[in-house]
Amino acid sequence: MLLRPVKDTEEDAETVRQLATAAFGDSHALKGDAPPEPPSPERVARSHERIRHLARHDPGGSWIAEDPTGQPVGAAQSAIREGTWGLALLVVLPSAQGKGAGNALLQRALEHGRGCLRGLICCSRHPAAVRAYRRAGFEVHPTMRMRGRVDHARLPAPDGPAVAGTARDRDLLDSVDRRVRGGAHGPDHDYLMRHCRLVVADDLAGSGYCYIHETGMVELLAATSRRLATRVLSAALLSLGDGVVAEVHDVTAGQQWAVDVALDAGLGVRAEGFLCVRGLRPPSPYIPSGTFL
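== GNAT family N-acetyltransferase ==
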């Protein structure tokens, strides 16, 4: 098994995307979900940009595994942001699973974050993934997924101002990150601002923010209090159109404020996946990004 770095190129980005598509297709089948629809050109381009973003900012954290014939069989991407390490991606082709590729990729990603005090991973329900992360010393916390069309009439209006965020809010965003998860997301905010709507709340009681994609996916949320978290999540969900399906992933049991918002909005709630942490408690109030943690 050969491991090589992911280069900041379209070719390597497409290789990693195809590996992830094949591996996640297997994961969807395991959960009994319907196969995902073919991605649009815009979604492919966004995936390429995300993969290259991580390869550019953390070249030591992005790796491709190749079999003896030189064929890619797996990939991993991880990032360090101010002493907080996160595993953004770990995928292995179904045909190559159980042959050591996943463990080799995970070890290389963990080596990248060896000097970090804190670590975060959003984990699927796949038994092999849970086992690998637990053996690597991570605590495993079950998470929930909320999904459905927002009932605008039922969801209460935010209890205070929540406005559209801009690049001028970067210091606020990094400050909230440091308080909630121990390290700022830094350049990841640049990527998220290009692809998501940003909702920000800032008053004498504290600060909070929420990124939500036009497809309805909540990408990342952090706040200094549950009240501010409730405000920005409510405002983000209310900003969606009537026919858009909202999705909120990786919500731990400690985030009951998020469950309350989801239920008020008419979203369904189900158990799905795990948040794995090392060197810290599950951040709260916080909804992690699957990629940027």
